Amino acid sequence: MSVESDLKKDGIIITNKLDTLKINSIARNVAVKICDTFPQFCLNQNELFIKLSRLNMYKANMPDGMAEANYFYKNSSIYFNEHIQDEDLEEFAIHECIHYIQEVKDKKNYLIRMGLCDYTEFKIYGLGLNEASVQLMASKINGIPRDFVKYFGISFETISPSYYPLECCLVNQMAYITGEDVLFESTINSNDNFKKKFADLTSPKIFMTIQNAIDDIFNDEESIIKLNNKIARCI
């Protein structure tokens, strides 16, 4: 399926492309913030800036309930909701830029891994786990304060009250067992260090059970959003 077909399927309509100057500004500031927030990973700030500056960035009309920014690996592009003010683009770009850093492709340009998420021929594993971990990193970079929220009748504290709050809360508890560094290192470098450490401290079965449960929560939330948008179009 082409990028255009993917965008149309998701209800994303491009309104304009960001110019090179704006893209470079976002890339530079995001690179600085990632390196400053996670110095333990010894990322090269200049190399990271050069990599991020190669991204295409667009503003677009997006359906209600969809994330304010979305990264598409097929054309290395970030799409921002058109209502986001220019001065706020950087904040929303961080999560998507981490996805760009994470991606591992094969020789045919097919995505095979993104952080904690494995794209196999028949099934995707760890999508919810990866989204939550990336959002935890983005929340740290953006300095989002912890807050209490209520979702599905459950009250809990989360560092990400607006995006994947329940998933972030659960993954944050997993990081309490292993330590944050190994979680974020695996997230940005796309390796199994976090999975192995968590499985060693608990068991492989427990890891898979939790990973699958977080994926189920994530997928159910996505299904609810799509259903609500479908209902809205019929009204």
Count of β-strands: 10
Given helix and strand content, the structural type is alpha+beta
Question: What about the largest sheet?
Answer: 4 strands, mixed
Portion of residues in beta strands equals 15-25%
Describe the protein's architecture and organization.
It is built from nine helices and ten strands. It is α+β, with helices and mostly antiparallel strands. Strands 1-2-4-3 form a four-stranded mixed β-sheet, with helices on both faces. A hairpin with a 4-residue loop joins strand 7 (117-119) and strand 8 (124-125). Helix 2 packs antiparallel against helix 3, helix 2 (20-37) packs across helix 4 and helix 6 crosses helix 7 (180-189). The two termini are 29 Å apart.
Which key terms come to mind for this protein?
235 residues; alpha+beta; Zincin-like; 2 domains; four-stranded mixed sheet; four-stranded antiparallel sheet; 9 helices; 54% helix; 18% strand; globular
Q: What topology does this entry show?
A:
Elements: H1 3-10, E1 13-17, H2 20-37, H3 45-52, E2 56-61, E3 69-72, E4 77-81, H4 89-102, E5 103-105, E6 111-114, E7 117-119, E8 124-125, H5 127-142, E9 147-151, E10 154-158, H6 165-178, H7 180-189, H8 193-201, H9 204-234
Parallel strand pairs: 2-4
Antiparallel strand pairs: 1-2, 3-4, 5-6, 6-7, 7-8, 9-10
